[in-house]
Design a protein that fits this description.
The structure is a homodimer of 537-residue chains.
Chain A (H helix, E strand, L loop, with lengths): L40 E2 L12 E9 L16 H7 L6 E7 L10 H4 L9 H15 L7 E5 L2 H12 L5 E5 L4 H7 L5 E5 L1 E2 L2 E2 L1 H9 L3 H4 L6 E4 L13 H14 L2 E5 L30 H6 L14 E6 L11 E5 L1 H12 L7 H44 L1 E6 L9 E6 L19 E5 L7 E6 L11 H14 L2 E2 L1 E2 L15 E6 L5 H18 L4
Parallel strand pairs in A: 5-6, 5-9, 9-10, 10-11
Antiparallel strand pairs in A: 2-3, 4-12, 7-8, 11-12, 13-14, 14-15, 15-16, 16-19, 18-19
Helix pairs in contact in A: 3-11, 4-5, 4-10, 6-8, 11-13
Keywords (chains A, B): Aminotransferase, Pyridoxal phosphate, Transferase
Pfam family, one (chains A, B): Aminotran_1_2
GO molecular function (chains A, B): pyridoxal phosphate binding; transaminase activity
């Protein structure tokens, strides 16, 4: 593994000029060495005495790492999470406590965690995330830095300010996460959409875009930053595999670009969907039966960091999907120069992530240990696999689903599932139905990662496609809502809001949070409403 | 109390144009009404199931509200906090617990607090801070809004983006909080310093500046935003009193400006310093003996909100000084139009404040109740009063302190304490010393609020004042650091870094965090070093 010398590949021109990152606050140049010197008496800071923090200790009862199964078994059915939710299956927990004052100097404690603190985060937690990045992502160079942050949304905000100047563009997938776009908007940073396929951003489309970039015609310089959610992309659910990642990274090297990897669904790699009728009772969800950490990691699509020999990747990790969104906690992994600037950006805004959250998450991860945390993640992965399967199974119950390789568009070459109304008299099987198949209502590719199914609605089959696809999508969305079901309207996920060539509508459907009976009910309502809407009763 | 109609005083032109605040994310226009409709099944969000949050409950042992005395008594000496710190005086605590699922719908719970949440914060905590703003600040209009945020530093960041355009200026005190300036810098918002006196920003200087503003000569439009820390200002310790606040507010009305009130030290209003020899043993620290909430509030300098009949004030409150800095939690109080924009700004960055912190702080404040919290704040106020007194007493021990009304400069008319070397043979008394007083080394006005003493160093007495005051300040700072004491270098607190007319240096000294013996020791080291430095052994 190479030690990255920033001067070897000079990335300093990537730091924004119009938005210079804030100067280092406390220690004036030349005075730093005195700060924190042992034995020195400091009257320099504005710190309250920890005696006035009204907490003697905080504690939590935390679930044990093997709370969720890693093998799909009869008795560990997809209902197990529901049982736990209802308390029918008593949770097994361990207590953890964070005292105000440490017993040993290295202990996490509230006197430190609830004090004004380093923007980089508690050292104990930094150590844990560094170990995780090291073992799980294996960056291609040695001196990468891990820095805690207050969640990926805020982290992306800081990255935008640190790397982009007003009027510049950021390369994004054609359908992408709207919050990330809204973050750029106040700084006048514009999304530049790139065509996608079943693996997310297309490298050939990206090469063409970068090669043929016409600054005058576009009204902005060639974008230097790529934003992507490479695993289980929001909203399309696509996952960028190794070969594609290498191609895109090579384009970064060629064109001097940076890759921002916003990867909240990394561990939720559920594997291929297998139709219910073809799933054996004892079949393990792909990879989830592996009980060894290294094998588990090897079963996951790798991070861009693994190929990042030039320090061009800023990876954003979050605890939102693995611990809880309300932790507002995550970490950057990137080169030390960018990390230093991101730390400065935090000093003048969020400062450190919340100390209550940092200390309870640290206590949890210390109690579990690395192996325990990996075990927890493996359990989570199977839970989302079971949910993904339950939702797609429910579609297969409600509709006539056919499977065929996509022949055009973003799903070319993928196994595309197309749903149409079931024949009225027959109720046997879904795939080899003898009756003629009625007009397709929607299509999708079951995601191999993440929380979302991206449903394409075939409005080209609709009597009034003369009106725009966006209007039809909105109309159908309202009818669904009136009937009691909310989907994510596809139009939210267009970075440019250009509908001129669209003949389809889309819905983003999240299978992450509903109880199974609600999922069934929502699919039944969807069936009734879409059949009526498409004139296909 | 008037109901503020935004159209009556149109403040909409104050919202920045170049930095438009982000559009509302989730509900597209016209679809909002369906979000959160009872009984609707939502597959629209990307929420993990709370079953996967690895916390069954979190809890804390919290100090009781009367943990610190409100009366200065012999047995409740300034050492009481030290005793508590060392555990000699056993803390009295109460347990609070936040369960994963609520028993009653209105209970705080982790399923909500640790989920993706409203940027405005937990409703239960919003209710508490609204009650506090209502009772303690009594805003002059009715429909003001309270909105939680992730600490005043981040809140100011969002205010800057929401109100200012690149290239504009913000009016600030001549010496001011450097972090607030560093927050503006990346957005190319420039500080415009206003002369100060013993009450902070001068209204006459502000009027002159606004009246005579020359856009062409200044290279920027007349500033529309005033930033101030009106109580115990950082670093000067000054407090703006009612009449001055009314004058400045009137200027806001006349010139169409906004007042951002960053007020972390509001409850730390310690009152006038009384020299030790003149303090009776039973003398109460000013106001701290009052045991009734309304009287306590009446004893405090009011917020700008109290005069804000036009909705021109954005007040920033923080729990950093009253609960703990690591809570990264506070709230805005402002007009509903600005509040809506600030909420949007949070949605694309910090989202909601950390759920662990929100829920534990809420549980604490619910357990204490409003009366309990006020009692806690009264106890805190006396603690800081005792610390302020201890530090000034220590200066009086180490130096010959004389008191006289200031005749010029920022302390004109204030009771200014001037320190010089003690006569070598005499050790009796400090104020009526018979021996001739040696050259003044430093001056200060004991603060009536906050955590800081702003020490002016008389470099005009120094043999090499030919070099700049800033260089001497740095040199003395390094000598102090080498001797084992860190002060805040005054130069950090200059928003413009213009030293041309300075003949003095400054140090900001925080008395908030040291144990008494450390305070004594640091003052003794300071005495030795400054006497040597000024050639006055």
């Amino acid at each position: 593994m190479a030690f990255l010398k920033p001067e070897a590949i000079d990335l300093s021109h990537h730091l924004s000029g119009t938005f210079p990152t804030a100067r280092h606050l406390s220690p004036l140049k030349g005075l730093q060495k005195y700060w924190g010197r042992p034995g020195i008496i400091s009257l320099a800071g504005g710190l309250p005495s920890p005696a006035y923090f009204p907490y003697s200790d905080i504690s939590a009862n935390i679930l044990v790492p093997n709370s969720f199964p890693v093998e799909r078994k009869q008795e560990e059915s997809s209902f197990s999470w529901l049982w736990k939710l209802l308390g029918a299956d008593k949770e097994k927990t361990t207590p953890v406590t964070v005292p105000k004052y440490p017993v040993r100097p290295e202990d996490i404690n509230l006197a430190t965690a609830l004090q004004y603190g380093m923007s980089a985060g508690l050292p104990q937690l930094q150590k844990i995330v560094k170990e995780f990045s090291d073992k799980v992502y294996s960056p291609a160079y040695e001196n990468y830095t891990c820095l805690l942050h207050a969640g990926n949304t805020d982290a992306w905000n800081k990255v935008v300010i640190t790397l982009c100047n007003p009027g510049e563009g950021v390369l994004v997938s054609k359908w992408t996460y709207p919050s990330a776009m809204a973050t750029m908007q106040p700084f006048n940073i514009k999304p530049v959409p790139v065509e996608i396929d079943g693996q997310g951003m297309r490298s050939d489309a990206l090469r063409t875009l970068l090669t043929e970039w016409d600054e005058a015609a576009r009204g902005m310089p060639r974008p230097r930053v790529i934003y992507a959610v490479p695993i289980g992309e929001n909203p399309t659910g696509t996952t960028t595999r190794v070969a594609r990642k290498k191609e895109i990274y090579q384009l970064c090297v060629e064109f001097g670009d940076l890759q921002v990897e916003d990867d909240p669904y990394f561990v939720l790699q559920e594997g291929e969907y297998v139709p219910k009728s073809m799933r054996g009772r004892q079949t393990q969800a792909s990879g989830t039966g592996i009980d060894d950490e290294a094998k588990f990691i090897a079963s996951l699509e790798p991070s861009y960091l693994k190929f990042d020999y030039q320090g061009r990747v800023i990876r954003l990790d979050t605890f939102s999907k693995t611990i809880a969104p309300g932790s507002r906690l995550g970490w950057y992994t990137c080169n030390p120069m960018f990390a230093e600037r991101l730390e400065r950006a935090a000093e003048t805004s969020t400062q450190a992530p919340c100390g209550f959250g940092q200390s309870l998450v640290t206590a949890t991860l210390q109690e579990w240990g690395y192996e325990g945390y990996i075990r927890w993640l493996k359990g989570l992965r199977l839970q989302y696999t079971l949910r993904r399967d339950y939702f797609v199974d429910a579609l297969a119950e409600e509709f006539q689903l056919t499977v065929a390789p996509g022949t055009a568009g973003m799903w070319e070459g993928c196994q595309v599932y197309t749903g149409s109304a079931k024949p009225k008299r027959s109720v046997t099987g879904y795939f080899n139905e003898k009756a003629p198949i009625s007009s397709p209502l929607f299509s999708f590719v079951p995601p191999t990662s993440g929380m979302f199914v991206w449903l394409k609605i075939h409005f080209d089959q609709h009597p009034s496609i003369a009106t725009t696809a966006k209007d039809l999508e909105m109309k159908l969305w309202i009818e669904l809502a009136e009937a009691g079901v909310l989907f994510g309207p596809g139009s939210m996920f267009s970075p440019t809001q250009d509908w001129s060539s669209e003949r389809s509508g889309h819905f983003r459907i999240s299978f992450s949070n509903l109880e199974n009976d609600e999922m069934t009910k929502s699919v039944q309502i969807f069936g009734k409403v879409i059949r009526e809407f498409m004139g296909n009763l």
